[in-house]
Amino acid sequence: TRRLSLPGAVVVRRYGRLLVQRRGVPSAPMAPWVLDSPADLPCESPLPDGRVLRVSRGDGPRALAVHSLAFPLTIRASEPGDRLASGGGKRRKVARLLIDAKIPLTERRAVPVVQASDGRVVLVVGIRRAAGLAPDDPESALCIEVASSRVGLSGE
After folding, report:
1. What residues have CB less than 8 Å from 32, skipping those under 6 apart?
2. Could you count the other beta carbons within 10 Å of the beta carbon of residue 19?
């Protein structure tokens, strides 16, 4: 990690990426968002960093099996102590998953986490889903992803 301090900003090179951060301006936390049922799909919600969180039916590398989820789902920023089932009765800390995925510390609060109503973290969006939640078929799949810009759904 290399760091260059400038008036009012810090430039950091980490994992081959160059980040420019303003000093004294904390990143805005993600407000929790609740998805009441799969009938509410498709839908989207803006994130504090300008990206858009999209939820829709469909298959994907980290899609979830709808029939295995306890609705409503809460989509929020990760919290200290969050854990994700990784199989074989083991659970991994979400913080460790973000470190292993080489997400810089300054960006980790911007990675959404999906929590079922029973309290289980079922997905770290874009990183990993909990064990046992892979969909059997695309018709029963829930896809949650982050897009870089807003594109209207259903002819908006």
Report:
1. 74, 75, 76
2. 14
